[in-house]
């Protein structure tokens, strides 16, 4: 039984289509609200219905423009807090600043931790997210964090659409655990592309560890940003005898030259989810296939609201 009042879903401007899809799964409607700009660029937030004593879920990935969508989210959380909502859960399918989770150079911020502080001060009681870049970010919060995995969704698509001998490939050493779990789910082999990063958003793929000759390779990662690493990885795999190469990625950040690179890449297909909405340019790329996480998030929201187990949805093979 729910102990935090009626379930209500609210969205900012980051991904309203995903919010509507989640509502369709839950059989409810979006809470009326206005999230707009004043003439000077400041954000204006007004909640259009009573939320006193309610269990409110705010759907808002902090994707590009990251700072604007983060500020939107914080102002929505503050408005709900001041309107006496019983509990407010921030549903951030994509957690912006997640790659800045530690100090890699002197005198640098730990931005992912600062974002966690922002959200908690603004009035968030709980966080629901998908495929955090670093699982340790959960420790930056003093409230419950549910980190869901899109692996089952992506793996199911690969299993249903790809025939022949498969090999799951991690584009770097840091993603080996994710790729190993993906490979175990598909019952296939694992390989790694050895990579040397020379500067932020720039990487040079070196060689392949593992057997990929004659196989359909699936490059697996949590996000695809400028696509440089992924495209270089695809070329290296083909040079090492791979039959074809596709990618399975959760978050389509797709900044800078990413879309052009993917359209001109040797990938047969790039499968992503809708944690981040695709730009019109990305939607026009025939190689990009989008899967919806709305059902997964809707189940998590239902379980959180009814005080049921959320861990049954993690579905992560170790």
TrEMBL record:
<feature type="binding site">
    <location>
        <begin position="225"/>
        <end position="229"/>
    </location>
    <ligand>
        <name>D-ribose 5-phosphate</name>
    </ligand>
</feature>
<dbReference type="InterPro" id="IPR005946">
    <property type="entry name" value="Rib-P_diPkinase"/>
</dbReference>
<dbReference type="GO" id="GO:0002189">
    <property type="term" value="C:ribose phosphate diphosphokinase complex"/>
</dbReference>
<dbReference type="Pfam" id="PF13793">
    <property type="entry name" value="Pribosyltran_N"/>
</dbReference>
<dbReference type="InterPro" id="IPR000842">
    <property type="entry name" value="PRib_PP_synth_CS"/>
</dbReference>
<dbReference type="GO" id="GO:0005737">
    <property type="term" value="C:cytoplasm"/>
</dbReference>
<comment type="pathway">
    <text>Metabolic intermediate biosynthesis; 5-phospho-alpha-D-ribose 1-diphosphate biosynthesis; 5-phospho-alpha-D-ribose 1-diphosphate from D-ribose 5-phosphate (route I): step 1/1.</text>
</comment>
<feature type="binding site">
    <location>
        <position position="197"/>
    </location>
    <ligand>
        <name>D-ribose 5-phosphate</name>
    </ligand>
</feature>
<dbReference type="GO" id="GO:0009156">
    <property type="term" value="P:ribonucleoside monophosphate biosynthetic process"/>
</dbReference>
<dbReference type="Pfam" id="PF14572">
    <property type="entry name" value="Pribosyl_synth"/>
</dbReference>
<keyword id="KW-0418">Kinase</keyword>
<feature type="binding site">
    <location>
        <begin position="99"/>
        <end position="100"/>
    </location>
    <ligand>
        <name>ATP</name>
    </ligand>
</feature>
<dbReference type="InterPro" id="IPR029099">
    <property type="entry name" value="Pribosyltran_N"/>
</dbReference>
<dbReference type="GO" id="GO:0004749">
    <property type="term" value="F:ribose phosphate diphosphokinase activity"/>
</dbReference>
<dbReference type="InterPro" id="IPR000836">
    <property type="entry name" value="PRTase_dom"/>
</dbReference>
<feature type="domain" description="Ribose-phosphate pyrophosphokinase N-terminal">
    <location>
        <begin position="7"/>
        <end position="123"/>
    </location>
</feature>
<keyword id="KW-0479">Metal-binding</keyword>
<comment type="subunit">
    <text>Homohexamer.</text>
</comment>
<feature type="active site">
    <location>
        <position position="195"/>
    </location>
</feature>
<dbReference type="GO" id="GO:0016301">
    <property type="term" value="F:kinase activity"/>
</dbReference>
<dbReference type="InterPro" id="IPR029057">
    <property type="entry name" value="PRTase-like"/>
</dbReference>
<feature type="binding site">
    <location>
        <position position="221"/>
    </location>
    <ligand>
        <name>D-ribose 5-phosphate</name>
    </ligand>
</feature>
<dbReference type="InterPro" id="IPR037515">
    <property type="entry name" value="Rib-P_diPkinase_bac"/>
</dbReference>
<keyword id="KW-0808">Transferase</keyword>
<dbReference type="GO" id="GO:0000287">
    <property type="term" value="F:magnesium ion binding"/>
</dbReference>
<dbReference type="GO" id="GO:0006015">
    <property type="term" value="P:5-phosphoribose 1-diphosphate biosynthetic process"/>
</dbReference>
<protein>
    <recommendedName>
        <fullName>Ribose-phosphate pyrophosphokinase</fullName>
        <ecNumber>2.7.6.1</ecNumber>
    </recommendedName>
</protein>
<keyword id="KW-0545">Nucleotide biosynthesis</keyword>
<feature type="binding site">
    <location>
        <position position="133"/>
    </location>
    <ligand>
        <name>Mg(2+)</name>
    </ligand>
</feature>
<keyword id="KW-0067">ATP-binding</keyword>
<feature type="binding site">
    <location>
        <begin position="40"/>
        <end position="42"/>
    </location>
    <ligand>
        <name>ATP</name>
    </ligand>
</feature>
<dbReference type="GO" id="GO:0006164">
    <property type="term" value="P:purine nucleotide biosynthetic process"/>
</dbReference>
<feature type="binding site">
    <location>
        <position position="172"/>
    </location>
    <ligand>
        <name>Mg(2+)</name>
    </ligand>
</feature>
<keyword id="KW-0963">Cytoplasm</keyword>
<dbReference type="GO" id="GO:0005524">
    <property type="term" value="F:ATP binding"/>
</dbReference>
<keyword id="KW-0547">Nucleotide-binding</keyword>
<comment type="similarity">
    <text>Belongs to the ribose-phosphate pyrophosphokinase family. Class I subfamily.</text>
</comment>
<comment type="function">
    <text>Involved in the biosynthesis of the central metabolite phospho-alpha-D-ribosyl-1-pyrophosphate (PRPP) via the transfer of pyrophosphoryl group from ATP to 1-hydroxyl of ribose-5-phosphate (Rib-5-P).</text>
</comment>
<keyword id="KW-0460">Magnesium</keyword>
């Amino acid at each position: 039984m729910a102990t935090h009042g009626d379930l209500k879903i609210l969205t900012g401007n980051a991904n309203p289509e995903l919010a509507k899809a989640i509502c369709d799964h839950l059989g409810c409607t979006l809470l009326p609200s206005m999230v707009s700009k004043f003439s000077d660029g400041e954000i204006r937030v007004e909640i259009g219905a009573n939320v006193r004593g309610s269990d409110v879920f705010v759907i808002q990935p902090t994707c590009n423009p990251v700072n604007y969508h983060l500020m939107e989210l914080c102002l929505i959380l503050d408005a709900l807090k001041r309107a006496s909502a019983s509990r407010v859960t921030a549903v951030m399918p994509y957690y912006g600043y997640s790659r800045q989770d530690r100090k890699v150079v002197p005198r640098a911020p730990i931005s992912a931790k600062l974002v966690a502080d922002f959200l908690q001060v603004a009035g968030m009681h709980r966080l629901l997210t998908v495929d955090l870049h670093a699982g340790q970010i959960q420790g930056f919060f003093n409230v419950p964090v549910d980190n869901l995995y899109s692996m089952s969704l992506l793996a199911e698509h690969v299993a249903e659409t790809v025939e022949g001998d498969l090999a799951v490939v991690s584009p770097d050493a840091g993603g080996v655990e994710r790729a190993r779990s993906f490979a175990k789910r598909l019952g296939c082999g694992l390989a790694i592309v050895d990579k040397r990063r020379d500067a932020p958003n720039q990487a040079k793929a070196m060689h392949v560890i593992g057997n990929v000759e004659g196989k359909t390779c699936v490059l697996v990662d949590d996000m695809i940003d400028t696509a440089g690493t992924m495209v270089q990885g695809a070329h290296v795999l083909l040079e090492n005898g791979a039959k074809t190469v596709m990618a399975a990625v959760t978050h389509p950040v797709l900044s800078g030259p990413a879309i052009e690179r993917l359209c001109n890449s040797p990938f047969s297909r790039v499968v992503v989810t809708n944690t981040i909405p695709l730009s019109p340019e990305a939607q026009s790329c025939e190689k990009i296939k989008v899967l919806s996480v709305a059902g997964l998030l809707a189940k998590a929201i239902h379980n959180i609201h009814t005080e049921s187990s959320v861990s049954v949805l993690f579905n992560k093979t170790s």
